[in-house]
Amino acid sequence: MYATIWHILPGPVWLRIIFVLVLLAGVLYALSTWVFPWVESIVNNQEATVGGP
């Protein structure tokens, strides 16, 4: 899969690396903006604390 993405990207190696970094940043932004908050609302979040003596 990664090889397919690498071969689809245009340009020399340095430009492909920049494209990959931009794509990765976009995926991470989408995950942290929409996916993780949605999953957090579904998962049963128990408020657990570690108590001291």
Question: Would you kindly provide a written description of the structure presented here, covering whatever features stand out?
Answer:
With 53 residues, the chain is mainly alpha-helical. It has one domain (2-39). Helix content is 70%, strand content 0%. The protein contains two helices and no strands. It has helices spanning 2-8, 13-42. It is elongated, with a radius of gyration of 19 Å.
Shape descriptor reads elongated
Radius of gyration: 19 Å
What's the N-to-C terminus distance?
52 Å
Beta-strand portion reads under 5%
Salient structural properties:
53 residues; mainly alpha; 2 helices; 70% helix; elongated
Helix and strand arrangement:
Blueprint: H1 2-8, H2 13-42
Question: Could you give a quick summary of the protein structure above?
Answer:
With 53 residues, this protein is mainly alpha-helical. It has two helices and no strands.
